[in-house]
From TrEMBL:
Family annotation (InterPro entries): Cat_transpt, TrkH
Record protein name field: TrkH family potassium uptake protein
Organism from which the protein derives: Mesohalobacter halotolerans
TM spans (from-to): 12-33, 39-61, 73-94, 139-166, 187-210, 240-263, 275-296, 342-367, 406-431, 471-496
PANTHER family in the cross-refs: TRK SYSTEM POTASSIUM UPTAKE PROTEIN TRKG-RELATED (PTHR32024)
Recorded superkingdom: Bacteria
Entry keyword annotation includes Cell division: no
This protein's record includes keyword Ion transport: yes
Membrane topology term: Multi-pass membrane protein
Length: 499
């Protein structure tokens, strides 16, 4: 194999910086609209620095081989996310909203990886220009800046298939024809349309337009950043807002390819999808268990305010149970109540949900439903194989036999995921965190969930973590968002060997 094509890697980094700057301009416009003169120039400076850096990088690498190989693809994706996080930290640092570089990087990588873990103690005092940028980092990372880029790369004469493969391994590109750029454009159109629709509905339900925009950006990306310190609990007296967010969190945890098929009126394909049916089943059963457990804990206070028109404790319990189950499964991380204070059983139960995840091809993090289904089916088949050692018993999914290589890949991923969690927890404990905080922070960061347990529970944040723990958590967020292999393969010796 020939040596790595570094000019094309740097050229794509330049393109990503320009895109980041274009999105950053929204924070400048927001600050101007709300007359935030104290920070307008700083936001404008960050915009100029990022865009100028991108343009210069593109200019000096304009003469490059335009082919992106497999290795270049993996490097571009991992380095791209790091570059986006580094440049995305500038609005926080320049405005003084988060003056510490470590904290600014943590907040930014948490945004792009749609983790939603925050170090901000008082969110409501942040300028609106900074808040909109904070939510936009979620939205950009939700579908993946790399997927956006491959829709544009052909304009520069650069192919994007290797980028798409590295960035979105869960999306089945066979169902979207004919070109990979068309895939990206269609997915982003669906993504944008759902964001706009949720924003409209939230505004009609009683949110201010600014809050509605921010929560639309955070929900569709399954991110979890809110404009309120209490997160969605701020609207505990408005059940319409919470049900709207529940609906769009659930949709965001669904494979976006299925929405494309639904828009083409192929509803049978939607309901025939096995992962989607398991997704509905998991949410339904887990919500029912949570509802029963919470409802029969008679002294439990679900919220600080209760709207007089609510249907009573049954409706409120069901809503909070459903909201938190969907928020955790889809790794959105919004909260309407501190679920760690409900019951010890619920805390342990929800900790298990940290390892579930949404659907493949969604904006959710975690292990993903399809992998869980494969693990369950393979486990059942092993019992049959023990009883019938000579029988040929292939695994079937969506009515088709699954190649054994895919099963091995899923098993390998799960083992690597659990090892990453164990190592992540051990490092957290070595850095001085107690058991619950170490376990919670590691599982939440790797699964891109957000709120966890211990000192990083829904009523706390990550600001109290030591600096090294914040950097380790940032690494785990990136590792989980890019589904392990994309990042870890860079640490192998054979990746860098020349053949």
């Amino acid at each position: 194999m020939t040596k790595l094509n570094f000019p094309i890697i740097l050229h794509v980094m330049g393109i990503l910086l320009v895109f980041n700057g274009v999105f950053m301009s929204a924070s400048v416009l927001t600050s101007w609209y709300y007359s935030e003169s104290a920070i307008l120039s700083q936001l404008l400076s960050s915009f100029i620095v990022v865009v100028t850096s991108g343009i210069l990088l593109m200019f000096f690498t304009r003469k490059h081989d335009k082919d992106i190989g497999t290795k270049e693809g993996y490097l571009i994706v991992t380095l791209g996310w790091i570059i986006m996080a580094l440049s995305g930290s500038l609005p926080y640092i320049f405005t003084g909203s988060i003056p510490s570089f470590t904290n600014a990087f943590f907040e930014t990588i948490s945004g792009y990886t749609t983790t939603g873990a925050t170090i901000v103690e008082d969110i409501e005092i942040l300028p609106k220009g900074v808040l909109i940028w904070r939510s936009l980092t979620h939205w950009i990372g939700g579908m993946g800046i790399i997927v956006l880029t491959i829709a544009i790369l052909p304009m520069f004469g650069i192919g994007g298939m290797q980028l798409f493969t590295a960035e979105a391994p869960g999306i089945n590109t066979d169902k979207l024809k004919p070109k990979i750029t068309d895939v990206a454009k269609r997915l982003w159109l669906i993504y944008f349309s759902f964001t706009a629709l949720e924003t409209l509905l939230l505004n009609l339900a009683g949110m201010s337009l600014f809050d509605a925009v921010n929560h639309g950006l955070s929900t569709l990306s399954t991110g979890g950043f809110s404009t309120k310190n209490a997160s969605i609990a701020y609207w505990n007296d408005n059940y319409w807002i919470q049900y709207i967010i529940i609906l769009f969190m659930f949709m965001s945890g669904t494979n976006f390819v299925l929405f494309y098929l639904a828009f083409k009126l192929k509803f049978k394909r939607l309901m025939a999808n096995e992962e989607f049916r398991w997704y509905i089943l998991f949410v339904s059963i887990i919500t029912l268990i949570t509802f029963i457990a919470v409802y029969f804990q008679g002294d439990l206070t679900l919220s600080s305010t209760q709207h007089p028109m609510l249907l009573g404790r049954i409706e409120a319990t069901f809503r909070h149970a459903l909201f938190q189950v969907v928020a955790v499964i889809t790794t959105t991380g919004f909260v309407t109540s501190d679920f760690t204070a409900w019951l010890p059983f619920i805390s342990i139960f929800f900790f298990g949900l940290f390892f579930l995840g949404g659907s493949a091809g969604s904006t959710a993090g975690g292990v993903k439903i399809v992998r869980q289904v494969f693990l369950i089916k393979n486990g059942i088949l092993e019992f049959k194989r023990i009883l019938h050692p000579n029988a040929v018993l292939p695994m079937r999914y969506n009515g088709k036999s699954v190649d054994q290589k895919i099963v091995y890949n899923v098993l390998g991923f799960f083992i690597l995921y659990m090892l990453s969690f164990i190592v992540g927890t051990l490092v957290m404990s070595l850095l001085g965190l107690d058991f619950m905080t170490s376990v919670g922070a590691a599982a939440s960061s790797l699964g891109n969930v957000g709120p966890a347990f211990g000192d990083v529970s829904p009523v706390d944040n990550y600001n109290g973590l030591p600096y090294l723990a914040k950097w380790w958590s940032s690494f785990l967020m990136l590792l989980g968002r890019l589904e392990l292999f994309t990042v870890l393969i860079l640490f192998t010796s054979y990746f860098w060997k020349k053949y």
